[in-house]
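Section 4.2 – Deliverable D4.2 (structural model, holo form)

The reporting period included a commitment to supply a predicted holo structure for the target in complex with zinc ion. Inputs used:
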Amino acid sequence: MTNTGFTAGIDVGGTKCLAVIIDPDNNIVAESRVPTPRGATALIDMVEAVAVELIELSGGLDGIGVGVPGQMDLSGRMAFAPNLDLGDLPIQQLLEDRLEVEIVIDNEANCAAAAELQLGVARGVSDAVLITLGTGFGNAIIVNGDVSRGAFGMAGELGHTVVNPSGPECGCGNRGCLECYASGSGLQWMAREAVERGETTRLLALAGGDIENVRGEHVTRAARDGDKAAIGVIDRFSWWLALGLANAVAILDPEMVILGGGLVTDWDLFEGRVRSHYDKMVLAGPYRPPLRIEPVALGERAGALGAALSARVHKGFAN
Ligand SMILES: [Zn+2]
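Output (structure tokens):
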């Protein structure tokens, strides 16, 4: 066990893994990226290899925080991660058996929320909802100035609330979860549907003529080029996201919604549409302040940074 004031955070995303080392003043002093492998053993091997690299780079770490795209329980067991097709994985124990450093595990969106609370856009905020629009729909809930984990550690899964029981099958086993629509994979699915219906040739051309290659980035590019079908997909996506926001606001009444994830880069394409749909759906709309929506201040590193901060808090180095 060292006492250097340096900790590391490893943000295991659905497709890529981003790791950082922070110094005692919370500055990022090193970072590393690798793709996220499939399967439990490969995942643990990858996190171990990244952790060993970070320990060598830093010359000693006080702790390592790991953010995962799944539900953690309070004992460090990953209960369910549909986007990785994993469940019931005692990830903290498995890593502590291999590494001589304290390991703290949390949901990646919870990590991002912890970072935004301490260093970012949520400083001084009491109640907020954080949403990461990446491959999936990540979510964390901030209540009374802290990340709310629920009774069993598994709160904050707005993405898996069912919004259409006859909708497409979700990775979690249900049908028509919000994540099926309001996520990068949802955007891709809706775009492929539009191509299949023959509504757009521009989207197909951007994807090299292969419908299986149509991705979210093609939708935003085609929409910027004025492609009507792509704009229609953006509007449909925005309707579903607005529905999720209206539901979250009805339950949690947050001061702000913090948006992260890859889709935020193109938020200008979505914002007006999301707000317009949301205003028609939200409960007591005329009697509540306009929804404050802020992008994450810490960008794509929010999750890794939050994981590193969690490792420090856990060690008693909280600022
Ligand atoms: Zn689901």
